[in-house]
Amino acid sequence: MFAGRFKTVIDYFEDIRRLVINSGLIENWSEMKLHANNKREGIVRCNDPLVFMDGARLRFTEDVEIDGYTRGIERAHYSYHYEQNNGYYFRYERDQPRSREPDGTLIVNHPELHLHVFRDSPRYMTHKTSFEEVFIFIHACFYRQEAG
Hints:
Shape: globular
Structural class: alpha+beta
Number of domains: 1
Strand content: 25-35%
Largest sheet: 8 strands, antiparallel
Order of helices and strands: HEEEEEEEEH
């Protein structure tokens, strides 16, 4: 899983769908949809949020493209928004168009890769991420059962 080598966007979609199903945390995994533009490009998203066993929700969208040479995934845009019932949330975003002024000047308080935690401002500069990384992070931080 997640070897980073995919022939088609369908292969990628099936991989992340398997991750969600195998976690046992989400019952409405069928909300995950792929809107393929062609074999190598598409949008992966959920129309309604994925709901965890405790009622927390994960909304996401990714604009993905398979690199024809490396077979890796490029994500031109993404948003992964996890929210608990108590109002706590975080959201990772890659937002290229809004990170620059029309003349190309960088908007300092709106970095292309950013993280929101509990409110929309400030936007914390962060790294490139992926559905897999965010889902595994959520699982490890909020749903991992302590061995004992």
